[in-house]
Amino acid sequence: MASAAAPAPTTAPTLRRLYAARFVFAAAWAALLLASGSGLTTPAKVLLVVYPAFDVAAAVVDARSARTAAGPLKGLYANMAVSTLAAVGLALATTSGAAAVLRVWGAWAIVSGLVQLLVGVVRRPLGGQWPMIASGGISVLAGASFLRTASGDDPSLTALAGYAALGGIFFLASAIRLPRRG
Questions:
Q1: Contacts of 145 (CB under 8 A, 6+ apart)
Q2: Are the beta carbons of 119 and 132 closer than 8 angstroms?
Q3: pTM to 2 decimals?
């Protein structure tokens, strides 16, 4: 990925809007997940599938803004594939309980975190990417924690709300740090 072309002139403004939207979505999603309770209720199941589906949609928007940058595009396409698999996996896992959900979410957090970290590294010249790099690394660690929690006696999904909220804060920080000029 290190051989990426320079970012398109419209990338920074598009990313700023996209990152701000991702912050709003993540905050709302986390609040709704907490409000739905700790069990796998129907609203919780829907939310669990919607989160990676939103990630796919955001990656599509991101890819459209980064058409001239080959490095980020590869990572964004990988993210689309991984998040699509996560949405399907979570839909299936919600029928098997919280431990299964945490395993799928944990695996997704690890892989998508690595992708986010790499895309952030490639986009460093654009500016405002250190929060994305940090978020990717934290996502990998959080994913490992979800996998560990899944094997515990009483796995809970409430940590996913914190994960989403923290990720949203990193998106907001990156949106603020992106340069105003294209």
A1: 106, 159
A2: yes
A3: 0.89
Structural domain contains residue 127: yes
Q: What is the rounded distance in angstroms from the CA atom of residue 83 to the CA atom of residue 112? A: 7
> For the chain, what is the domain count?
1
> Would you give per-residue pLDDT tens digits along the chain (182 residues)?
333 444 444 578 888 999 999 999 999 999 999 999 878 999 999 999 999 999 999 999 988 887 765 567 888 999 999 999 999 999 999 999 999 999 999 999 999 999 999 999 998 888 888 999 999 999 999 999 999 999 988 888 999 999 999 999 999 999 999 876 54
Residue 88's nearest CA partner among 61, 57, 58, 48 is 48
Domain holding 76, by residue range, is 11-177
The DSSP code sequence of 86-109 is HHHHHHHHTTT-HHHHHHHHHHHH
List CB contacts of 39: < 8 A, sequence separation 6 or more.
none
Q: Is residue 151 part of a domain?
A: yes
Provide CB contacts within 8 A for 131, sequence distance 6+. Answer: 170, 171, 173, 174, 177
2 within some domain: no
Asked, for residue 159, whether it belongs to a domain, the answer is yes
